[in-house]
């Protein structure tokens, strides 16, 4: 597989899996972070494709507009509203939730936003660690805290939080300490929400191997340099070497899992993790 084969794909209407769920209506709002690209954009489109009203947030305003435009181009049943914001700023987090709640009954939260930095622990810049922690762990916690009262005040007092974890929330690879710690932490947040939700407010996480996203393509050269190998070797040996399924997931594949978890089909998924890793973490040679 070459680098060209991991180019982030465009979501089409046929890619979006639709669920028959009476809660998937425009009355209910799904807040999606990281919605300007990758899995976040795909999740916003999948939620709108299932009839939900979507509050899409990201620091990348132009990317958000691209998500809104794509939803319009696809003629999706639900609307997507852009709510730009910086997940490292508490005032922005509070405003994002307030604006999302103005769109309808805030019922679902998809914590997708993430970033990556490749460096060994002894060289890892702490300011980068702090930023990654705030975006990928602290913001999901604070957004959950802010959304839960809206869940409780909704028509059924129910709601659900979906967290984008990773195989790196199960086992780790070198030179990704901030990412590894954040993804392990997200699984702890997921279980904590479930422990306090009494079955009415659920939470789940999704752990995938490498997905065809801008975040993945952006780290190819850094990983190659860090390990002293070629970009193609990173793809074939590092990203797919331990996987039994020799292809990367697409963002919409992950987005459809978020909607599965939010749907009535996922009602027994509470604190659990959807491990879609092609056998990477649970098999060995």
Mean pLDDT: 92
Count of distinct strands: 7
CATH superfamily, by name, is NAD(P)-binding Rossmann-like Domain
Report the CATH topology name: Rossmann fold
* Percent of residues in beta strands: 5-15%
The largest sheet, given as strand count, sense and whether it forms a barrel, is:
7 strands, parallel
Short précis:
The chain has helices at about 40-50, 60-75, 90-100, 125-150, 175-195, 215-225, 230-240, 250-260; strands spanning about 30-35, 55, 80, 105-110, 160-165, 200-210, 275. With about 280 residues, the chain is α/β, with parallel strands linked by helices. The radius of gyration is 18 Å and the shape is globular.
Describe the structure.
By secondary structure, the chain is of the alpha/beta class. The protein has one domain: NAD(P)-binding Rossmann-like Domain (Rossmann fold, 3-Layer(aba) Sandwich). 42% of the residues lie in helices and 14% in strands. The chain has a seven-stranded parallel β-sheet with strand order 3-2-1-4-5-6-7, sandwiched between helices. The chain is globular. The model has no long low-confidence stretch (mean pLDDT 92).
Please supply descriptive tags for the structure shown above.
seven-stranded parallel β-sheet, globular
